[in-house]
Design goal:
By secondary structure, the chain is mostly helical. Helices cover 73% and strands 0% of the residues. The protein is built from five helices and no strands. Helix 1 packs across helix 2, helix 2 runs antiparallel to helix 3 and helix 3 runs antiparallel to helix 4. The N and C termini lie far apart (32 Å).
């Protein structure tokens, strides 16, 4: 999460408090769009937990591409 906050500060020019709020808002939005277990894994990835990305990839039925396509409004089977 710290990396996301830092990027918001650097790329968008947000003050630290506003960047933290924006990151939390984005995380909440993403978690609302995913099933519970995947939402928990996304939070772990953003927290930088060990093996979090591999754990997340293993739990996505159909693969990461399918999941992101559905999340972003792409074609759903």
């Amino acid at each position: 999460m710290e990396e996301l906050v830092k990027r918001l500060q650097d790329k968008v020019g947000l003050e630290p408090e506003k960047a933290q709020q924006a990151a939390m808002t984005a995380l909440g939005f993403i978690k609302d769009k995913l099933p519970g277990p995947l939402a928990d894994q996304v939070e772990k990835v953003l927290a930088g937990g060990p093996d979090a990305i591999a754990d997340l990839a293993d739990k996505i039925p159909g693969g990461v591409g399918d999941a992101l396509g559905g999340l972003l409004g792409g074609k759903k089977d």
